[in-house]
Amino acid sequence: MTTLDRRQPEGIFSANDTVTHSVIDDLVTANRILAGEGVLDAFGHISVRDPHDPGAFFLSRSRSPELVEAGDIMRFDLEGNVLEGEGKPYLERVLHAAILAARPDVNSVVHHHAPSVLPFAVADVALRPVFHLGAVMGARVPVWDSQDSFDDTSLLVSDLDMARSLAQTLGTEPSCLLARHGAVCAGPDIRQTVFIAICMRDNAEVLTNALRLGTPSYLTEGEIRQAAAKHDGGAPVARAWEYWARRCS
Ligand SMILES: [Zn+2]
């Protein structure tokens, strides 16, 4: 793993803007954590809303997450148009744009193809919480199928119509599966979003293993509600973030 590059990007924000500095710093760390934890690999990406402008968000240029540095971060509007920054953007930046536009409560989005999650985007088996931390991904993860409205495509969410359709299926949930493709997770801040993505990875792995052994015991609605509330930000998320950040540094 390469060392974190703490250089500040040029042209994205003024040098004395400590709020944006800290958001970009977390965005770089989030990229490294999700790569280090195997949620992202060569592909996938994470975004964060501009703390000074709810109509804009930050996302790396098209680069593998483990390699992302502060200087790679670009700024986009909520239709995916480049506002600031250099380089070739991710094709699927519109997915972030559409979800952030549809969800004022969401300030960070991750799109991933975590290997443990992918089978649930392929098989006719619902992804539901089977251990307490899995509760943060939602009671029953909805599945968006591009075939329903767009017929045969490359499966990449590469235009706004597809992105808005995905955002609609996500609804008010914290996560959604993309049939034959991957998943998205959406949270109120970047650390919670990373938390959701990693817990989703773990829940998918536990559920697959449990299905091999027999009939899984799923969390009840009440357990999901209480366990999700217990892990909605605060000390547990701060503790996990510190642990994951150390592992990837
Ligand atoms: Zn993808």
UniProtKB/TrEMBL annotation:
Q: Which GO terms describe its molecular function?
A: aldehyde-lyase activity; metal ion binding
Which domain of life does the UniProt lineage start with? Bacteria
Gene Ontology cellular component terms for the protein in this record: cytosol
Give GO BP annotations, semicolon-separated: pentose catabolic process
Q: Which controlled-vocabulary keywords does the entry list?
A: Lyase, Metal-binding
Family matches, as InterPro entries: Aldolase_class_II_sugar_metab (IPR050197), Aldolase_II/adducin_N (IPR001303), Aldolase_II/adducin_N_sf (IPR036409)
Q: Which Pfam families match?
A: Aldolase_II
User: Which Gene3D superfamilies does the record cross-reference, listed alphabetically?
Assistant: Class II aldolase/adducin N-terminal domain
The residues covered by the Class II aldolase/adducin N-terminal domain are 25-208
- Cross-referenced PANTHER family: 3-OXO-TETRONATE 4-PHOSPHATE DECARBOXYLASE-RELATED, FUCULOSE PHOSPHATE ALDOLASE
Q: What is this protein called?
A: HCOMODA/2-hydroxy-3-carboxy-muconic semialdehyde decarboxylase
User: From which source organism is this entry?
Assistant: Roseibium marinum
